[in-house]
Amino acid sequence: MKSTTFLTSLLSLLLTLFCATATADHETSTASSSIIFTTLGKLDYAFDIFTLPASDTPSVTNEIQITDGTYLNFNGHFPSVSPSLLSFLLRDQALIQPPGLHESPPLQLIYVTERNGSSNIYYDAVSFSNPTNTRSRTALELEVEFSTRVQVPLLEIKQGKSAISMKDKPSLSGEYLIYVSTHEDTGKPRTSWAAVYSTELRTGLTRRLTPYGIADFSPAVSPSGVYTAVASYAEKGWDGEVEILTTDIYVFLTRDGTQRVKVVENGGWPSWVDDFTLFFHRRSEEDNWISVYKAILPQNGPISTGSVTIQRVTPPGLQAFTPATSPGNKKFIAVATRRPNSSYRHIELFDLVKNEFSELTRLISPKTHHLNPFISPDSTRVGYHKCRGDRNRKDKNTHLLLENLRSPLPDISLFRIDGSFPSFSPKGDRIAFVDFPGVYVVNRDGSNRRQIYPETAFSTAWNPVHEGVVYSSTGPTFASESTEVDIISIHVDDVDQISSKKLTTNGKNNAFPSVSPDGKLVVFRSGRTGYKNLYIMDAFEGEKGGLHRLTEGPWTDTMCNWSPDGNWIAFASDRDDPGSGSFELYLIHPNGTGLRKLVQSGLGGRTNHPSFSPDGKSIVFTSDYGGISAEPISNPHHYQPYGEIFTIKLDGSDLKRLTHNSFEDGTPAWGPTYIRPVDVASPKNEECAFEDCHWLNKMPNQGLGFTFLEPTKPQCGG
Q1: What gap in Å lies between CA 98 and CA 86, rounded to an integer?
Q2: pLDDT per position as a tens digit, 83-96
Q3: Which of 140, 308, 388, 477 is the most exposed place for a label (fewest CB within 10 A)?
Q4: Contact between 386 and 52 (Cβ < 8 Å)
Q5: What does pTM read for this prediction?
């Protein structure tokens, strides 16, 4: 195609689309649709909660899997309440009286579980007695064969606005469940929605314990139930930290959140021994090791940071964090560690009398990460979560291609996809996505998954007119302007030989293609002038068929998406503060006019990857608008442990948060058809392989700097 033909196509498209805009804006689409996105690593976690005796030598035979081997189960708590009392507290008492459970004291657990894509807090009770059994069986076999497991959701999740939220770090104190939830919008960009709540189990009455304008994480209730300690930002806002948060520890009355007082500056993950002694972690200012500390509160007189005695507990030489205690136990604590000679996170006990460690999990699963320990009230058991592995999995395969999430928008179904940078075919029957290093296409029902490009690539986009043509960008990710990254088109319907064509040839960084609704043009970002700006080229001949520069400036314009009506191009840009890493969403007409900001990210915020709705009136995007929802050290590796999925109308109104978790959600796509809200199985087997926080590989080197260890993916099940 010649350059004049290219310009004619561009001008013709603009004229047609501008003429249609006035009437199109008054049309209301009633068609339902679907949104898909990726969550970094989540579909590979397959966490279950396990327990080991605190006093016996750890072995595979005495490690018990408590949770069900099906869902994502994590962050547990051993309650001290008796099953009979809990039965009284719960409104549906029939759920807690299965045959056989009364035969012996059950192992009780309260924990966070994700099922149907939404988190809730569950109570599990598992009885291991089986007097009629003639042979030894595992706990999982007993649960399946003799129905000795009880599972009860402790919170009611309703459909609708503000009902869906992330739940985290539960504790049961008497009749009350204390936990973190993210269901209340702060109304300010880049401020955390995380707050601590108390729910009375008998009535469901819920009280917010965190003052408005403050973010609280990791609540811990004292043994008496009188006090709750939290890691809090107080009046400070979140500034993008992804390592040890600079939180302070506050204590308040559990019953109503009053008498709130700061007891520790610079501390996280509190855990009580008694009402005047708590443990926490922080990074030492002297030697940079993450260590566990003890805070002793005064038993008489007012409590303040000046009246609290703080002592370092774990020595330098290893990273020790997320401490766990049990009531009155001053002999030992449990901690998660990263040692310089290990690439894995493990649970260890630290003897408070002898000041020495004893290993637990490394002795049975040396190449598996173990997270967030907790101790039973009688100090006999240590719990934690890890990948369940093949031998502990209940179902043959729980790996999903599409995981359905409870959607706050009733006419839109919401899914996680096992891949990144997804995009829908024009008919909505196929999905292209990246599964590093290649590009894949799969039918919407999970069938016919096939690789269409074998090399490193990111971003996908279908030609809306010419069926079977997919565009992507191939080359290194997060690369400089001068690094060669090219736009390619891939013809995926040639079964005998899938062919690809390079559309950019200048040797610079060209990425994030999106196709005009008539299928003739592609908008993309390019670093060809030393800055990443937006350009438009021919969809088949590439830059050889004509090139039009859309934006210009010493900043980065990227992640562009062309609206279905052709009138707008949405993109992310750091033009307000070039080079800062802070991105906001903008709109521009394809002729370069009408530039305006759509989403304000907040100071230092990131708002990325816009995708238009099928009717062109709204945009889905990923953002840290909701701040951070949990202490990052309590999770596996995430580049941005704060990305959530949002929608907004083109006039900037009706902002809605679709996802709530402490993981990284990103690269959303809004499809033209409605996908039935059920899970779609993946042809892949469950891998359960993930990386620990990369920054935990940074080991202090005797005060002379840091040594970096290579991150290692764990093996399944150790």
Answers
A1: 14
A2: 666 666 565 544 44
A3: 477
A4: no
A5: 0.90
Bridge partner list, 404: 415
Q: Is 649 exposed, middle or buried (0-12, 13-18, 19+ CB in 10 A)?
A: middle
Structure tokens, 248: 């302070």
Q: How far is CA 368 from the centre of its chain?
A: 20
Fill in the amino acid letter for 396: K
Question: What is the rounded distance in angstroms from the CA atom of residue 262 to the CA atom of residue 250?
Answer: 4
Residues ≥6 apart with Cβ < 8 Å to 460: 421, 422, 423, 432, 433, 434, 439, 470, 471, 472
Burial 408-443 (b: 16+ CB within 10 A, else e): bbeebbbbbbbbbbbbbbbebebbbbbbeeebbbbe
Question: What is the mean predicted confidence (pLDDT) over 164-181?
Answer: 94
Yes or no: say if 560 and 512 are a contact pair by the CB < 8 Å rule. Answer: yes
d(CA 347, CA 372): 8
Tokens of 54: 């605190």
What is the residue extent of each domain of the chain? 3-18+35-41+399-687
CATH fold for the domain made of 3-18+35-41+399-687? Neuraminidase (2.120.10)
Give bridge partners of residue 332 from the DSSP assignment: 351
Phi, psi values for residue 146, rounded to 5° = -120, 5
The end-to-end CA distance of the chain, in Å, is 57
Cα dihedral value 449, 452, 457, 459, nearest 10? -70
Beta strands in 437-556 (DSSP E): 438-443, 450-453, 457-462, 469-474, 486-491, 499-502, 510-515, 521-526, 533-538, 542-549
Greatest Cα pair distance in the chain: 86
34-60, pLDDT tens digit by residue?
Answer: 999 999 888 778 899 999 999 988 988
